[in-house]
Amino acid sequence: MRLLLFLLAVDFGVASAQPPSGIEWADTRRLVMDDFKGPAPIENYNIRLSFGSSFDVKANEPNQHEHFNALVTHTFIGEQSWINWTKGNQLLFANTLFDIHEWHARELRKQLWLNKRQVQRGDFISIVDKVHKDFEALADSYGNETSQAEIAVSQMMWETKIRDHLAQLSDFCKTCVPPKR
């Protein structure tokens, strides 16, 4: 199976960055067939996924925000995503990748919060780059280890791992408030 995965541009430090239009991750909402509205890819792919990330971080504003949760937005872009519904567990695969991207968003919120002074100085690109690189590798590992959700035992292990990490990062959901430091 072949996968075409788009990670849309991340808006770095743009004061008025608009989050990409799409579906924001929610623990009560799973992607469904009707969410995939993009055209079929020209090449022979089974799935094309598009996720967007943006954050509205302003450098050199010392009292900008107590935390960064509401400033980091993660979305699934249905207009640019497509699935070959005749092939395997593609919807499960897409939902699991969406969960991994929420894990990524929460980890980014946490790292921005932990490094608030560095972020306020405008020195946050290295934080974003490291978190992004780590999660690109994680998403690749997930796809390889589960054969795009086709290996049931590996899939269940990954789902448990993702749920555990999302729970550990529960203070960093978009609408949550991290504990006082």
Describe what you observe in this structure.
With 181 residues, this protein is of the alpha+beta class. Strands 1, 2, 3, 4 and 5 form a 5-stranded mixed beta sheet that branches. It is built from 4 helices and 5 strands. The protein has helices spanning 90-114, 116-120, 125-146, 152-168, and strands spanning 3-11, 23-24, 47-55, 72-76, 82-83. Mean pLDDT is 83; it is low at 1-19. 38% of the residues lie in helices and 15% in strands.
- Percent helix, as a range, is 25-40%
Overall body shape = globular
Question: What's the order of the H and E elements?
Answer: EEEEEHHHH
If helices are DSSP runs of H or I spanning 4 or more residues, what is the number of helices? 4
Percent in strands: 5-15%
Low-confidence stretches: 1-19
- How does the helix and strand content classify structurally? alpha+beta
Distance between the termini: 46 Å
For the sheet with most strands, the description reads: 5 strands, mixed
Arithmetic mean pLDDT: 83
Assembly type of the chains comes to: single chain
Rg over CA atoms, rounded to whole Å, is 17 Å
Give the strand tally: 5
